[in-house]
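Case study B.
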Amino acid sequence: MPPNDPALKSFIATAPESHFPIQNLPFGIFSSVEDATLRVGVAIGDHVVDLALLADADLLPLPSEVFRSGSLNQFVALGHATWRVTRELISHLLRDDNPLLRDDHTLRSAALLPQEEVTLHLPMEIAGYTDFYSSKEHATNVGSMFRDPENALLPNWLHMPIGYNGRASSVVVSGTALHRPKGQLKLPDSDAPIFAPSRKLDFELEAGFFIGQPNALGDPINIAVAEQHIFGMVLLNDWSARDLQQWEYVPLGPFNSKSFGTSISPWVVTMEALEPFRVASPAQVPVPLPYLQEHTDNGFDITLEVTLKPAEDSSGSSVGQVICKTNFKAMYWTMAQQLAHHTVSGCNTKVGDLMGSGTISGNTPDACGSLLELTRNGQNPLTLTGGAQRGFIQDGDEISMTGWCQGDGYRVGFGNVVGKILPVQ
Amino acid sequence: MPPNDPALKSFIATAPESHFPIQNLPFGIFSSVEDATLRVGVAIGDHVVDLALLADADLLPLPSEVFRSGSLNQFVALGHATWRVTRELISHLLRDDNPLLRDDHTLRSAALLPQEEVTLHLPMEIAGYTDFYSSKEHATNVGSMFRDPENALLPNWLHMPIGYNGRASSVVVSGTALHRPKGQLKLPDSDAPIFAPSRKLDFELEAGFFIGQPNALGDPINIAVAEQHIFGMVLLNDWSARDLQQWEYVPLGPFNSKSFGTSISPWVVTMEALEPFRVASPAQVPVPLPYLQEHTDNGFDITLEVTLKPAEDSSGSSVGQVICKTNFKAMYWTMAQQLAHHTVSGCNTKVGDLMGSGTISGNTPDACGSLLELTRNGQNPLTLTGGAQRGFIQDGDEISMTGWCQGDGYRVGFGNVVGKILPVQ
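Model:
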């Protein structure tokens, strides 16, 4: 049976709502108390499979050093065929009808670690980070608020996936707390800026993809093969200080308002695992230029939710309140289009480049992927259970994002990306 | 004598106009026909000193692998004291009154290679690339042309060193030819963009600096110590496709118009070597916020020239025509201010981060650091010797930038950064 078959079962039992059934098998980097080495793991149910140990046991045809190099980059650089074959071999090893690992109790107890006992790290060494702006609803909402509601979309928006280079150094893995940033902001009643902690700290719900197969300088990626360059996807929280952003962004784009931290989920869900959830993306009018025209469905049906756990919550609950429900399939520009556009002038990519989708907003009020949109720039604060109100993020608040593809009786999920905001340092 | 003493002489003779006398000693990466290993070298006159061989001979107290790791990063990561001591030791070894290397003919012929016989490579593995916009004259010129001549500077410009994240992957070393980029551009008589080769290809004369001492996420760099984080400087050509840029840059900044290639000079001139050429930078009105206030002179007196060698030039001359003469000391925002601002919201830096100054323009017509300004967006083409006219760069044109600090009878120079534009691919 192929690794995406809904009928596949693993000897590691998973509930229907688990994000990590045998149909998923996302890759990540973990360490454990017993072994602080950062190594490649694959999530299965509540466990992590240690690929270095599987390689040591000759169950994977790769040198185990590839899985002990600190990030996924060395493994991913081996190419598309290696990613696919490795996932197939792991799928085979984890099947309930394969006794090889299932009945080898010594290896099984060494190579299958409970997720709650491991520490997850940044999955890839991120060479470059690009952030797009590909939700029509988000761009329209922002344009309406800050520019002209009658001409909310700028003239270029419908012609190309607008994007900008972000700051790769400050991309952090889920669970990393961040301090509220300080910076320049201009109050409405003043001509001069002040230096102060951000008063309009926000999240942005995004998905990100990692480049697995690079292209050379001067050699653009054709849209027909663009997805073959993508290793897999993560969830991404593009933390944004709206007041810093509004003052600094003209004419060269966001800078300090974004560079204090960007959080990603630890498990990279492969494009192979996402394949059954491919859907058509929204119709594009006007028809884009030929280099952006797609002849396959390049959207993906990924249900997304954002929860906010306010600082006031003393219930001890680990769960916040859902404040956004949306879906990645609403994105106007696809990942293939983003990559074709990014490279069309000759820009090269590297293994480990991260590309963010831009805020994912839908067409209903609760489908907005940022507080900026959910609260109309703080003017209509959210009232949370317990009475707390939020225009923007307060110190001690925790934002969690999750996402999954719904299969027939199983989910291919991303886990979550969580981050807490600490007081200014 | 300290390594900056104007009276110092090396047994490698250098003319007064040489960029690489013993007072400079810039670091770079080279390989040779005999040994393709990328290794660290220091320029002295027309020669390169192979630091790996000096370390093998126990003349430098560092393991020679540090100098054979492919870039300067490992060496630079050893810290400020190591850079300074290494430069002092090399200065001592190269002095005309020190027989140690001078009279060891075997070592000398192995470790001192003619520059014309080596290949120079990208000096550092560039983690992140940030480009600022710190010349008041340049920002004023651009604002006058594309926005409002009466309000050429945007409201934020006098309050912070505006910058944006550039694309690190496409930074190339001097000598790398680049193809004319293709992309979306909108002609004045049309509402819709076309896809075409750029018709307004330009250079931007900039200086760049490399981060040598990183800061951690959430831990801003104080302006008083900012320069200690800088390893050294290079010249930088921020190639720009003006027509792509004008169509794409709103609201998130330049993207494809810049990411097809950025050229840098191969020799990193250390901040120690530049120390004698420190000058006051222009007075800042209004006084910036405290985190940007300087109490030392943080400008540098660096004479700069750009030459254009047109495709039509069949003279065989290797020299182009000077089309810009300016000086780095005119920059409004200093490197220390750029770095303090970059990190003030908590952004971390890494060893090997490259930061560009932005186009360096002075206050006379021939002191403009781009064709956009020199030709008023192509409206007033330059007429070159031989009659060729240039509004923007044509296929086959070569742009060369050079720069030096003038000492008393010697120069501390940058060499040059050269690049030729090839036809669209």
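Residues 80-94 of chain A form the longest helix (15 residues). The remaining cases will be described in the next quarterly update.
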